[in-house]
Amino acid sequence: MEIALNSLLNCEAPRNKSGSMRNTVVSITGSDFLIDGQLTYEGHVHNGLRVEGLLFNSRMVQAIFDDLNPKTRRLWDYPDGPWDPERNSQEFVAAMPEWRTHGLLGFTINLQGGSPYGYSEGKPQPWINSAFDEVGDLRADYMSRLGRILDKADELGMVPILGLFYYGQDRNLVDESAVLRACDNITEWIISQHYTNVLVEINNQADIADLGVTPSAQAGGGRTPD
């Protein structure tokens, strides 16, 4: 993936010592993560266990959250005013340097967020939170917020794990062709922005029962915690 992405980047842009047009390059060698060619947490051990090469990260999937359903949007109001997605993302960006200072190298962010209640498995999700519209096109306001966060991560030497779809919210795309279009659009956007510090998670909270996998074969029910 790294080779494929780098080969598509505009060669006229300035490059750093790693050959990237951005400040930060993530790569994987075997099971080890490297940032700008250097093992993460190099030389560190904990209780006799090797730590270098790991990518400690925090799940922060609501960093670009919004609710496009006017009936539920008020549920997320601040104590001092109405819900504001720009404020949410600005406060996220402002906190990132502190996280990096304390050793956090990665964080998970999702284009369709996660459950605002912590868990919504089997329950309706009337809110609408998606960087994709119904046919898979990118919503400009979401991408603006995402770009600011990814830019700051690149500046700080951090690695965002970018999730594309989330259980429940993926149902807001009209059909499979919309899902494929969404994948193409976000991939092209990442490439066009020359990001080399981003890892991609296609889907979170995926129900794979339709693929013929029995419940006993699904570790933890086939879903991960919110």
SSE arrangement:
Layout: H1 2-8, E1 26-29, E2 32-35, E3 38-39, E4 45-46, E5 49-50, E6 57-59, H2 85-101, E7 106-110, H3 140-156, E8 159-166, H4 176-192, E9 199-204
Parallel strand pairs: 6-7, 7-8, 8-9
Antiparallel strand pairs: 1-2, 2-3, 4-5
Helix pairs in contact: 2-3
Short summary of the structure?
The protein is of the alpha/beta class and 226 residues long. The chain is 26% helix and 16% strand. The strands form 3 sheets. Strands 6-7-8-9 form a 4-stranded parallel β-sheet, covered by helices on one side. Strands 1-2-3 form a 3-stranded antiparallel β-sheet, with no helix packed on it.
Give a written overview of the molecule.
It is a single chain. This protein has 226 residues and is of the alpha/beta class. The chain has a domain of 149 residues. Helix content is 26%, strand content 16%. The strands form three sheets. Strands 6-7-8-9 form a four-stranded parallel beta sheet, with helices on one face. The chain has a three-stranded antiparallel beta sheet with strand order 1-2-3, with no helix packed on it. Helix 2 links the parallel strand 6 and strand 7. The N terminus and C terminus are likely disordered.
Task: Name the overall outline.
Answer: globular
Main sheet summary: 4 strands, parallel
Low-confidence stretches: 1-14, 211-226
Termini separation comes to: 27 Å
The assigned structural class equals alpha/beta
Q: What's the SSE pattern?
A: HEEEEEEHEHEHE
SS field, number of helical segments: 4
User: How many beta-strand elements?
Assistant: 9
Q: How are strands sequenced across the largest beta sheet?
A: 6-7-8-9
Report the C-alpha radius of gyration, rounded: 18 Å
